[in-house]
Design a protein that fits this description.
The structure holds two protein chains of two kinds.
Chain A: H1 2-28, H2 34-39, H3 45-55, H4 61-73, E1 79-80, E2 85-86, H5 87-122, H6 127-141, H7 144-158, H8 174-208, H9 211-218, H10 223-261, H11 266-275, H12 279-307
Antiparallel strand pairs in A: 1-2
Helix pairs in contact in A: 1-4, 1-12, 5-6, 5-8, 5-10, 5-12, 6-8, 7-8, 7-10, 8-10, 9-10, 10-11, 10-12, 11-12
Chain B: H1 2-16, H2 18-35, H3 37-40, H4 72-107, H5 109-123, H6 127-138, H7 142-168, H8 172-179, H9 184-221, H10 232-241, H11 248-275
Helix pairs in contact in B: 2-4, 2-11, 4-5, 4-7, 4-9, 4-11, 5-7, 6-7, 7-9, 8-9, 9-10, 9-11, 10-11
The chains are: A mainly alpha, B mainly alpha.
């Protein structure tokens, strides 16, 4: 297990190296002169030259890349001119809402998706099955950001049950935090719940066809025990894999959801940085989210061992 | 002879799949709407008419008007053009890029390691965030949206082609072709690539759907095609500002987006079930 963990962590090194290189190359994709683009039309030639030297853009490309690696390894993601603070500090300030939103949406997706898939699989072809799978197909196709607008119209504007937009920290005001978080979490989690439902259903169907299920039934075990203890646990490995993949989509979706609901997280940070051409912040956000995603999937792989004792990674 | 029979049954097998037929119908409808946008729409989608702003759906404006008095029906019809151009071009470019990278990686083991690490690295970014970052560097515009989405979605296709190549390259008929002195390139194009067409078609319809959705998201966030261009994402974004007074502005372009996604997903599901029964979801 430990040897496997070490091997897995070493395998992450090239992936993260590519991630850092992509973030680095972003500056060089800017058409024309990146420095004049960043500083805007009012900058004097002297300012442009100073900024160019400060950013190291006057050096050869390989040297710039090595310096960028060295900086990132030291935890230095540069400085945001507009926010007037280190990028790492800006990221830390904005991480909480995104984290809360992503995890709440994940919870919604699992709570809706897994039981729906299992109920559908219990009687394949039944009315329940067909209704749930039609809902799941629609759920996959309905764009989350548009769903959130409709939710705002229905639940905030029309019914007035929940606030239309905003954010409160759970550490400051848990009740307000919950009220603000319901609509964003449901609209972000809903389409992922559809994906999870489809996978759960097909994995359960496969598990229910196995010989040990027939044995368990023949032994006279109750329907619930057979479904939940025998079939569900064996269907869980692919479902957990999908939940890992879901995290990437949720992190991306959180960006859009934050814009709709005016939540001050990483999504709003990167969008305002794009509009202000604040490239260090753009680089910082994509670096941090990609790294988080890679580490989450490492965690998911480790989880398999606990779900399926046959997997030992010798 | 058996070859001719197999070919004859393909269209029929596709025709029997309810998913393929429904999906193809929906997609055809959207394509026709985009092709004949000028004839189908009732107003010039770019014409501002402040006197008629935020009018609810009526006989003059089937789907109402937006905050600038533009006709929502005409915006939706013309918006499909941007969506389809971005979707189709992204699908073509990712297929092309995926074929090149996948064939090279599947065929040359040394390059494989490097190429696959690069693909892994690109896929480590949440798709929409990488697209946003690329748009930040390149600036708004249809061409840049296509570029960004192609970079984001090519790795998935490349992985698919690579795994298909790996499973085929050791088959007897490929070994036979090599024994007969065929060159690598000829084997790749004559013997291996045709086997990739099925998976490519399936993947292509899903990428088409992702690209349309991603284009709308970029437009909605204000980092896609410029705001004055009628696109579904842009119209939904302008509807967001007036959701309290005029829900129809964001509702209808979103419905069009959902419908197109549904059509392409049905098509992809159906193609997968028909072309590759092993992947069928029970």
């Amino acid at each position: 297990m430990t040897a496997y963990l070490i091997r897995r962590i070493l395998a992450l090194v090239p992936v993260l190296a590519v991630v850092v290189s992509v973030a680095f190359l972003l500056i060089h994709l800017i058409p024309g002169d990146p420095v004049s683009v960043m500083l805007g039309p009012d900058a004097t030639p002297a300012q442009i030259e100073a900024a160019r030297q400060a950013l190291g853009l006057d050096r050869p490309l390989p040297e710039q890349l090595l310096k960028f690696y060295a900086r990132v390894l030291r935890g230095d993601l540069g400085r945001s001119y507009f926010l007037d603070r280190p990028v790492t500090q800006a990221l830390l300030e904005r991480a909480e809402p995104t984290l809360v939103l992503t995890l709440s949406a994940l919870l919604v997706a699992i709570v809706i998706g897994v039981p729906s898939g299992i109920v559908a699989a219990a009687q394949p072809g039944s009315l329940w099955d067909r209704t749930l799978m039609l809902a799941a197909l629609l759920g996959v196709c309905v764009p989350g950001f548009w769903l959130s607008l409709n939710f705002i119209y229905l639940f905030a504007v029309r019914l007035g049950w929940l606030p239309a937009a905003g954010y409160a920290s759970i550490f400051v005001d848990p009740v307000a935090a919950l009220r603000y978080m319901v609509l964003p979490a449901v609209s972000l989690g809903f389409s992922q719940s559809a994906l999870i439902a489809r996978i759960s259903r097909s994995c359960m169907l496969e598990a229910l066809q196995q010989d040990y299920i027939r044995t368990a039934r023949a032994k006279g075990l109750s329907h619930a025990t057979v479904t939940w203890v025998h079939a569900f646990r064996n269907a869980l490995v692919p479902v957990v894999t999908v939940i890992g993949i879901t995290m990437a989509i949720l992190i991306g979706g959180a960006v859009v959801t934050e814009i709709v609901f005016n939540i001050p997280g990483l999504g709003r940070l990167i969008i305002s940085a794009v509009l202000r051409r604040d490239y260090p912040v753009v680089q910082g956000v994509i670096l941090v989210t990609a790294t988080a995603y890679v580490l989450i999937n490492l965690g998911v792989d480790m989880l398999y061992v606990f779900i399926d004792p046959r997997i030992r990674y010798e | 002879m058996s070859d001719a029979v197999a070919r004859a049954t393909w269209p029929r097998r596709l025709g029997r799949s309810r998913n393929v037929v429904t999906g193809a119908l929906i997609v055809t409808l959207v394509v026709l709407g985009a092709l004949f946008a000028g004839a189908v729409s009732t107003h010039n989608p770019r014409r501002l008419d402040p006197a008629n702003r935020l009018k609810p759906p009526s006989a003059q404006n089937y789907l109402g008007t937006d905050e600038f008095g533009r006709d929502v029906w005409s915006l939706v019809v013309h918006g499909s053009q941007v969506s389809l151009i971005v979707g189709a071009t992204t699908m073509a470019l990712t297929s092309l890029g995926g074929i090149v990278v996948g064939l090279v990686a599947g065929y040359y083991r040394r390059l494989d390691i490097v190429l696959m690490r690069v693909m892994d690295g690109l896929m480590a970014f949440p798709a929409i965030l990488l697209a946003i970052a690329l748009m930040a560097a390149r600036g708004s515009g249809v061409g840049n949206v296509i570029f960004a989405l192609s970079v984001v979605y090519t790795p998935r296709t490349a992985m698919l082609i690579r795994s298909t190549v790996l499973s085929i390259r050791e088959l007897d008929y490929v070994l036979a072709a090599r024994a007969l002195g065929r060159r690598d390139l000829a084997i790749a194009f004559r013997h291996i690539l045709p086997n990739c067409i099925g998976p490519l078609l399936v993947q292509g319809s899903f990428i088409f759907a992702y690209a349309i959705l991603a284009e709308a998201i970029l437009g909605f966030l204000g980092v896609g095609v410029p705001p004055y261009v009628p696109s579904w994402g842009n119209v939904i974004a302008s509807g967001k500002n007036v959701i309290r007074e005029a829900f129809w502005v964001s509702l209808f372009p979103g419905l069009a987006l959902t419908l197109s996604g549904l059509g392409l997903n049905l098509l992809g599901d159906g193609l997968r079930d028909t072309l590759d029964p092993r992947l069928r979801v029970p």
